[in-house]
Amino acid sequence: MQKNAGLAAVLSFLFSGLGQVYNGEIGKGVIFMVAYAISALLMIVIIGFITTPIIWIWGMIDAHKSAERINRRYESEQRIS
User: Fold this and answer.
1) Residue 81 has pLDDT above 80, yes or no
2) pLDDT, tens digit, 9 for 90 and up, residues 10-45
3) Which residue in 17, 25, 47, 56 has its CB near the most CB atoms, within 10 A?
4) CA distance 63 to 9
5) For residue 36, what is the enclosing H or E element?
6) Model confidence at 80: pLDDT above 90
7) Three-state DSSP class for residue 17
């Protein structure tokens, strides 16, 4: 099933990992959620101020690219059928 890459990115913008879950990549989404939570806790010791935005942005980009990859795979399977 095709995925909306823009929606995947917006979902990850709203909550890190949610775009991956939308794409059907549940494990990856949970990893992003846990990494983001740990990074947010690390703000107590300053390093989180660096890692949290990186994980957040990486999650949005990954969700978008994963949706595009899923769509390309879906389209190639439709041509074969």
Assistant:
1) no
2) 999 999 999 999 999 999 999 999 999 999 999 999
3) 17
4) 6
5) helix 26-41
6) no
7) coil
| Token output for 17 | 């990992």
Number of structural domains found in the chain: 1
45 in a structural domain? yes
Which structure tokens are listed for 31? 């990893």
Tell which residue, 43, 42, 39, 74, has the closest CA to residue 59. 39
Please give the Cα distance from 65 to 25 (Å, whole number).
12
Q: Does 39 fall in a domain?
A: yes
CA–CA distances in Å: residue 36 to residues 16, 57, 75: 7, 11, 33
Distance between CA atoms of 63 and 52, rounded to whole angstroms? Answer: 17
Please say whether the beta carbons of 10 and 23 come within 8 A.
no
Which residues span the domain enclosing 51? Answer: 5-76
pLDDT for the residue 1: 86
